[in-house]
Amino acid sequence: MAELKEASKLPIIDTDAEQAVLDNLTGTSKELGLPVSFARQLGELLIEESVREQEGTRPKQSKDLLMKEIFELTQKLLAKRERVTRFEVGEPNFPASPQVIRGLTETFRKNKVVGYGPASGIPELRKALAEEMSAEHKVKIDPDQILIMPGGRFAIFATITSYVLPLERVLIPQPAWPAYEECVDFAKGRAVPINTKFEDDWELDLGKLESEMKKGARMMVLNSPNNPTGKIVGRKRFEEILQLAEKYGTMVLSDEVYERYARAKPPSVLESGAENWVYINSFSKQFSLTGWRIAYLVTTKERANRIRRVVQTAVTCVPEFTQRAVLVALKKGRREADRNIKAILGKVEVTCRELSKIDVSFHKPEGSFYVFPKANKPGFDSVKFARQLLEQHHVSISPGLAFGDYPAFFRLAVSLPRAQIPSAIKSIGEAIDSWQQ
Ligand SMILES: Cc1ncc(COP(=O)(O)O)c(C=O)c1O
Hints:
Blueprint: H1 2-7, H2 15-31, H3 36-57, H4 63-79, E1 85-86, H5 98-109, H6 123-137, E2 146-149, H7 152-163, E3 169-174, H8 179-186, E4 190-195, H9 206-214, E5 219-223, H10 235-248, E6 251-255, E7 277-282, H11 283-286, E8 295-298, H12 301-314, H13 320-355, E9 360-361, E10 370-371, E11 374-375, H14 382-393, E12 395-396, E13 398-399, E14 410-413, H15 421-433
Parallel strand pairs: 1-12, 3-4, 3-5, 5-6, 6-7
Antiparallel strand pairs: 2-8, 7-8, 9-11, 10-14, 13-14
Helix pairs in contact: 2-3, 4-14, 5-13, 6-13, 7-8, 7-12, 9-10, 13-15, 14-15
The structure holds pyridoxal-5'-phosphate.
Pyridoxal-5'-phosphate binds near residues 151 and 295.
């Protein structure tokens, strides 16, 4: 069976087939008067075992690795003191605000921060976040609904591993940041991609979404503004998605880490009136503190309690000194960080202007600092292209396949110095012109 699947290039996991097997098993056991939950558990066990067996000979290629490969090749060039124009790395490059650094040193000077802290985060930071979010979104958020997390990625991991059981389906609109799928795989859940198309302006098709929800989905990911397209889901569509999720009992994991990089205020689950969501945000992109690993999550108090156990079990708590420093950032550093973000959005404008001179198609991002262009060449393979571009032109980009089934696309993360943009885009244009299959 496994050989047959491999020979016909069928994927190891087919969620519809798995569902059919489970339905069949539970249906038959009902007819025979056997315990249905036992039949289901048995079915799940058999499916898991079969997948494990097949993955032994045909390991799944991690999408994250496609990005890491370019990152590592870039590091190698940099180690040889070569110059590289870097569009591959998704982090803002403005310096941490002096107030934040002062907050950090102040905290050390007072020497109050050497011990373990609460797993949900220090009360002062949760209170400050609750006040800020309540004011910005005109809703009442309680500090007990908030968890401080060691990074947005960990917040996603903790949410998924807290709620997704083996074989449970998680709907992930594509293109998507690869970490969601990695976390679902880790939990032995089933990542179900729902493709959106460039031609539809990356709009999520509600019919497709509903038909997947009808089959049963534990969770769906909503990432707006989106990495890599920069798409912001419109307010009406956002509400329709949440209504569908409520109707089918699908939890929404709303990743809003690029919220501050939006040209107009994007809709948020925080103000939706819906209930069944977990909201993720991070200091990484807001304050250019990617290496500090500090983020936050908002949900109901009950869910926060459940997710907190992952932090408690895995890392005990987020270090208190970073929490105290970002508290200073919240209170005194917002304006400066937002100014820096505006400067990055200016660079995105420059990038779009330059891209319009070369042979690509793209939608101007409404938020985030990413652009996701498509090379206008039949059969374009951006994995191969990314390697060649780096080797020959010393420009690093992320291939579209890292974000789903988008081989002709590539992602540009725009936080590099503005002066480097025109010549780098020109090189990309020349490489596309001379690209051959
Ligand atoms: C869409 C999205 N969500 C979450 C994150 C997590 O960021 P961090 O783990 O640094 O908080 C990233 C980072 O690139 C991202 O692109």
